[in-house]
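If you are new to this repository, start here. Below is one unmodified record pulled from the training split, so you can see the exact layout before writing a loader.
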Amino acid sequence: MKLVATTILLLASACNAFSSIPSSTLSQCFIGKAKIGTNVDSRSYLSSSALRMSSTETASFVQGPKIIMDQLPIVYVYDHCPFCVRVRLALGIKNVKHLVQFMANDDIPTPTNLLGKKIAPIFEIPEDDLIMGESLDIIAKIDADPRFGPTNSILPATDRTDIKAWQKSVQSLLRTLQRPRYVATGLLPEFQQIDGRHAFIKNHQLPPYEKKEWKGDGTNENPGIDMDEKLKLYAEAMAKDPAPLVEDLNAKLIELNDIVYSSEYCSEGGLSLDDIDLWARLRSITIIKGVIWPEKLRKYMDNFSALGDVPLYDQMAL
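And here is the target side for that same chain:
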């Protein structure tokens, strides 16, 4: 009955879907470090030995001293964007103090004035009068510049085809679960206002739709899906019992746990771009309530959250 009532309520207000803000406060939802706990489910925990490994594994990554430039570098981002998270994580790992400028999802002027188009992330080094885009190019710049600490501290990607195959296998599943939750919380910085939420819904399809079908191409033959229908589909996705999909996701996380090298690095040899990419993508899973993380993978998530100073979504999970 509760599910039916929720569905009716959401569908009745489809044009204003995801417009209200839950009573949870930002301070409850965005924590600076992983939490200490005991369960290996969707709650964080970080023991005093979490950043140490056994002698049989690759040595732990040693973070350098805090780097504070006279003019702090700035990264312009959307909080949910994995490409943006890549850059934030790399800066945190290298212990570079920086400013994080969250852009509203419907903000076109800010990125356009900086780099000529709506894009994220954008990285700015004020003292160099440098503004650049593309997450991997930004990370390469950071890791090659001695002003940002020891160079080449992040190892190259190892072309883990097994991890890439796993990511592809969960693409539709994660889009179905994550995308409605991004906007439904009303707490992510880029979705603080309804225009930002609607801009995301307008441009991000839900399975089984493909992007071209969802957005259209401007022709009479393919005008795209009407905005009211998009809002309805997002509302239905949130109203639907997520248990079967979460169960599937839990099974897929067990598969991933088996191919992740350790709780500190996903690939043998040390901290690499493999970790930068994988962790940035996995972070959004923490916005899904009821996820059960295998122990090694949960420690992996918490370790990088603490090391990179990028919070997880556990406290706002829906």
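Two things worth knowing about this chain: Residues 243-259 form the longest helix (17 residues). The first strand starts at residue 74 and ends at 77.
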